[in-house]
Amino acid sequence: MKKDFSFKSIVLPAVVLLLTAGIITALLAGTNTLTKDKIAQQNEKKQIETLQTVLPPFDEYETGTSKNGNQYYISKAKDGEIIGYAFITANNGYGGAVSVMTGITTDNKISGVAILEHGETPGLGANAAKEDFRNQYKQDIPESNKLAVTKDGGTIDAITGATITSRAVTNSVNDAIALYNEVREGK
Fold first, then answer.
1. What are phi and psi of 119, to 5 degrees?
2. Is the pTM of this model over 0.85?
3. Given a cut of 80, is residue 81 above it in pLDDT?
């Protein structure tokens, strides 16, 4: 059996494939352009909602950058007085990075913790997002500037079966405390 290697059998399918890929690429680019602003608005709305869960009520906020280049949020009252700071930090848990937003008020209290992203096991490490676990962090910053899970001699009760995740969240909060101290010393 002889194979046909003519222009029609080789070039024509390649041209059709190229045109199809080009049209699909153009459609995807157009969709991205049309939805880019809406996605940015939704992300900003989610960020503000998260800030409101980890910080006491505030009237306005702005962003700052630490000496090490970490971005953080500053919440303020109407008169411009700083109420608190929020820091986004991440540490590796069992299923990858656990991204945490930690709110700290100007009177050295951890006002709230929110889990932003994680890849932890449902029913185990994913329980870090539950309020009863996160509320353990609402306390004065310890004199040592470090929190720890009970297995490591601290006061944070680890999630049953998810000590690695619990340590990741705790280490993220500790990183936020270090950033808070850095920002406060720089002011």
1. -125, 30
2. no
3. yes
